[in-house]
Amino acid sequence: MLSTPMSADPDAVAATAPILEVKGLAIRFKLPQGWVTAVDGVDFELRRGEVVGIVGESGSGKSQILLALMGLLAANGRASGSALFQGREILNRSARELDEVRGSAMAMIFQDPMTSLNPYMRVSDQLTEVLTTHRGVGSAEALEIAVRMLERVRIPEARRRIRLYPHEFSGGMRQRVMIAMALLCEPALLFADEPTTALDVTVQAQILELLADLARDFNAAVAIVTHDLGVIARLCDRVIVLYGGRIMEQAPIEEVFYDPRHPYTKGLLASMPRLDESPHEDLRTIPGQPRAAMGDLPGCPFAPRCEQRIARCTQETPLLLRAGDGRAAACHLVAP
Amino acid sequence: MSDTAAAPVPVAEPPRLGLSPFRASLRRYAANHLAVASSVVLLLVTLACFIGPFFFPFTADDADFDNLSAPIDLFSAHLFGTDDLGRDLLLRVLVSGRVSLALGFFGAIVSVFISVLYGSAAGYLGGRIDDLMMRAVDILLSVPFIFLAIVINVMLGKNNTSLFIAVVVTLWLTPAVIARGQAVSLRSREFIEAARAGGMSSFQIILRHIAPNSINVVIVYSSLLVLETILTESFLSFLGLGVQPPAASWGTLIAEGAQKLETDPRVLLLPGAFLAAVLFCLNYITDGLRDAFDPNER
Amino acid sequence: MFAYAVRRIIGAVPTLFALAVITFFMMRLAPGGPFDGNRRITKDALANIERAYHLDEPLWLQFCRYIWGVLHFDFGPSMTYRDYTVSELIRAGFPTSLEVGLWAMLLAGLTGLALGIAGALRRNQPVDYVAGALAMTGLAIPIFVIGPVLQLVFGLQLGWLPLTEWSGGIAHKIMPVVTLALPNIAYVSRLMRGSMIETVRTNYVRTARAKGLGEWRTIARHALKGAILPVVAYLGPATAATITGSIVVEQIFGLPGIGRHFVTGATNRDYPLMLGVTLFYGAIVIFANLLTDLARGLIDPKVSYE
Asked: Does A170 fall in a domain?
């Protein structure tokens, strides 16, 4: 069943001030046919010591949220709304301003470690430059810190291996290197975009466990984007369910899995094949196909595929409203 | 997994039935205004060179002794003037353009043909044969093409045939390497396996599957080759090793013009402008074709 | 890396040898010779000449003799310039050709890189358009048109640069060098621009940005290294192109280089001269390709496994 949450005591966490407050985040892209909305109306908070999972299908806009917060949107993308990191606005700042926090207080782990590491630079250089840039340490000391971090992410023979190039590492080890690189400056906020999707199944569990341990050690706020409910179950304290660029439901993990309110969440959970079910039954699916960039249509983005929709659903976009203690949902049927 | 922070793209309208990849590429090309404009200009120049001379009441060799070294006068019989022997400049340029363009297009077609067959065979057969064939290409490539061209020219005597052969022999090399690359990546595709399983011989496979499927890359390189053939021929003619008098091509005219630079720069500038215009157009056309057809760019 | 370098160097030798074989046999098997139709030569005189030049010996023996000579840097006597051997002619002309060629490549490399990078980083802005126009000019207008046009404008009309009497001075070198460099500038700048645009969009440059390294450092340390690879790979072909161009440029500007010897040799069917120059230049190209391979090995760690 669900593992016990990996982070610190939830009550203690809830008592601290949020380190990241996102309000009304919307992301639009300029395409030849005009502006297209990928994400809209996204509100959430992150606190140190908690792991939040953002789950959604491909095209739901989940990766774009992280990229927008890091200031890494594609050239034709625009983010609007507000995102306060440690009380300071980080949305739509200049690159120079963002560079102060990027890599040091705020770090990101990307999806595909093969293409996300520079193939022409040694791993040592890619690691030490983070330290020399942000912490101002000399190269010798930076190397020491880097080696120790590699050991911490459980890369054997770290001192020898650090001189190698990325292609000389295996997939799982490359991801560990990426994790090490992100944690070098002990960030307060850590983003992870599908950290295990590009890896073998056997390696995935190790990486997740590593991530959880380190997050706890550094007491960082972690936001993980994934389409895999198993990853969510393993790691997260809270879950944000995204569809069509809008938040469908937000809740602590136990409640999401045992008491989902939103029809989409229910459908998602129902579609997971279970070991304790008879293997001869048909797999349950949600009818229809997701569409990308649905943010421009009126009504709930899930309405076309929702089995419980009513007339109101296609006309009026449901707002994300409180639906109990520490949880929220955007659905006309759940309205308090 | 795409390599960039890709923006989510809304689903386009479903493609109309029967739009083959080839036709889709043609559409893309047609949407490229620069390429289309260049194609039109090239067509006009070609027509002018091949048909234009029929509209002149005299020939390129006719010396108009009343009008030696006449200046440009768009309203006279001699639009761009005459040279010091009284020959109409524009007409000379158009007539010699026939040689340059014909050699260019024809040479390119032959080069493409040879290189695609050679490269496809090498790429598909692989192993030792591939090694050997490509090693030969490597060696030939290491000679600056001009030497190869000149040596052939010298060996076979100075006439248009040897010029043609020299140009083709030097230019088929690079497209052959590209075609081989295509063949290598095609070789492991399933439909080739199916052909083999169905009992097709290697020769048949090369001819009917590999070569035609390299067509996209071939189209792009054909255009590039036309450019290079015209350039190479002009180059050789300029050095006196190409087209021989009394025939003329743009290269020979430019050589003549380079010598007469101090007295009459028009003899250089007019064919030079035509040549440059054609090459400009071919450049844009090649770019357009590459954007539209090259599978590696998509 | 070292093993890779050694392998490459060793690999170049058979290529060179094959080149020698091909050119030698092509020459010898070609119809005619330098003495055709030139003057009336008696049969005896002809026989004497043939013996002197070893033309009466079996082909394979001539070839061995030739290879032996080549290894000693002796390409035999020239048949047109009676008092000189081919190697003397090459030695006399090489410094000029080398100087003009190297300067042209240097100019092309630096300018091309700068324009390409500028165009990529400032896409669709004025810099990009200027660079693009320059590139198109260099690519579309052949050097034998550009050369005389430059002579026309800067030599005749403006009188800034000298047209005659090569003195080896800088003023004399400007036009030939620029003419020779233009096509390569065009090619390199387009190559670099495309490569840079592509590199800047990669995931690993995105990671560099995410690390807060600053735009300059990201471009200089991360993007540049990968982007420059195609340009480095082009070094070999660039050398070949420059050599080719130098023949025409030397003709147009009257430079005392090797190129014109080749043309003279070609016109007169002076086989030893043509052969010698071909081999010499072929060796240079092979050498340039070698340098290219080594440079690629230094930049791209995966190359050393080839």
From this structure: yes
What tens digit of pLDDT does each residue of A86-132 get?
A: 989 999 888 888 998 898 899 999 988 889 999 999 999 999 999 99
Task: Decide if A172 is inside a domain.
Answer: yes
Residue numbers in A near C226 (CB within 8 A): 118-120
Rounded Cα–Cα distance for residues A97 and A95 (Å): 5
What digits encode the pLDDT tens for the residues C130-172?
A: 888 888 888 888 888 888 888 888 877 776 666 665 666 777 7
Interface touch B154/C285, C-beta < 8 Å: no
Which residues are A34's β-sheet partners?
A31
Q: What is the pLDDT of residue C32?
A: 60
Which chains neighbour A (Cβ–Cβ under 8 Å, 3 or more pairs)?
Answer: B, C
Cα A192 to Cα A66, A110, A112, A308, C288: the distances in Å are: 8, 6, 11, 33, 46
Contact A107, A189 (CB under 8 A): yes
* B82 three-class SS: strand
In our burial notation (b when 16+ CB lie closer than 10 A, e otherwise), range A173-192 reads bbbbbbbbbbbbbebbbbbb
Three-state DSSP class for A236? coil
CA A280 – CA C55 distance, rounded (Å): 90
Chains with 3 or more CB pairs closer than 8 angstroms to B? A, C
The helix/strand/coil state of C172 is helix
Cα(B34)–Cα(B276) distance, integer angstroms = 16
Q: What phi and psi, each to the nearest 5 degrees, are found at residue B221?
A: -75, -25
Question: Band of the pLDDT at A301, cuts 50, 70, 90?
Answer: confident
Bridge partners of A82, per DSSP, are: A23
**Taking the CA atoms of chain C, what radius of gyration do you get in angstroms?**
24
Q: Percentage of chain C surpassing pLDDT 90?
A: 11
To test the contact with chain B by mutation, choose from A66, A70, A108, A115 the residue with the greatest count of B C-beta atoms within 10 A, namely A115
Predicted local distance difference test score (pLDDT) of residue B115? 87
Answer yes or no: is pLDDT of B17 > 70: no
Residue A29, C-beta contacts closer than 8 angstroms, at least 6 positions apart: A35, A36, A38, A74, A76, A77, A78, A293, B7, B8
Structure confidence at residue A190 as a pLDDT band (50, 70, 90):
very high
Domain count, chain A: 1
Nearest to A104 among C202, C212, C217 (CB): C212
CA-nearest of A277, A211, A294, A299 to A27 is A294
pLDDT given for residue A1 in this prediction:
35
CA distances for B54 relative to B57, B97, C197, angstroms:
8, 14, 49
Cβ burial of A313 (10 Å; 0-12, 13-18, 19+) is: buried
Amino acid at B251: G
Other C-beta atoms closer than 10 Å to the C-beta of C91 total 13
Angle between helices B160-171 and B89-125 in degrees, nearest 10:
40
Give the C-alpha separation, B187 to B202, whole Å: 11
User: Is residue A58 one of the residues assigned to a domain?
Assistant: no
Please provide residue A275's backbone torsions phi and psi, each rounded to the nearest 5 degrees.
Answer: -70, -25
Supply the CATH classification number for the domain B42-53+79-297: 1.10.3720.10
- CA C69 to centroid of chain Cα atoms: 24
Residues of chain C with Cβ-Cβ distance to A181 below 8 Å are 211
Residues 206-245 of C with CB under 8 A from B: 206, 240-241, 243-244
Listed by start position, the domains of chain B span: 42-53+79-297
Of B3, B7, B10, Cβ closest to residue A77: B7
Quote the ipTM score: 0.86
pTM, two decimals, is: 0.80
| Domain of residue A169, residue span | 115-184
Backbone angles phi, psi at A31, to 5 degrees: -110, 170
